[in-house]
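Supplementary Methods, section 5.1.

A reviewer requested that the exact input to the structure prediction be made available. We therefore reproduce it here, unchanged from the version used in the analyses.
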Amino acid sequence: MHRRLFTAIALSGAAWLAGCATTRSELPLPPPQVAPPAAGAPASGGQTFVIRSVRDERVFEEKPDDPSTPSLGFGGAAKAGEEVRLRAIGRKRGGFGMAFGDVLLQPGQTVESVVRDNLAAALRGAGHQVLTDPAAAPAGAQLLDVHIKALWSWMNPGFWTITANGRVITEVDVAGRPGSVRVAAEHHDSRLAMTETAWLETITKALEAWRAEAAKQLAP
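The structure derived from this sequence is encoded token-by-token as follows.
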């Protein structure tokens, strides 16, 4: 009797998750807050950085086995178009891990604009000046070209809870420096359900961790 009841509860929970997972959500990611410079950070006369370019170089796959690999429903990434891919930040899954709907940024936001805003916030919070126009940059300014390798949220269903995951990986070319600077961060926590709020909180916390790394890696 207890076993049948437990099975019914588990199946009903899986069905509820799957029902929610079949939709495509468009979420408004709040702008990053510029924290005051930490103790020991450069004063207002710190370095000047110019974010010259930010490019989304994530690779989407059709029906990947690993949920951390970007993918899209509703016909797949190949049929989605660049505008949708630039806004995609996650893939919904049902109670047994099957992929269904998508999680997108709201229209007007893209992963490129999000990374640009978060990088600017990280550098300003470290006490530096950030510009977007290379023509206005003073001599000695650091020119940055950012390549987004990952900005993604995903869920791993468990027996009682769901693990919510967020990952941000970038490679930043700094003019005059050899090689690229890799800036990467992840966030993981447990949830009872992956609501829209949970998706937003997960990617927001991953970006917070990425900002801390960006400040350390690019403006030591």
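Helices lie at 2-21, 77-80, 82-87, 111-125, 196-218. These observations are discussed further in the main text.
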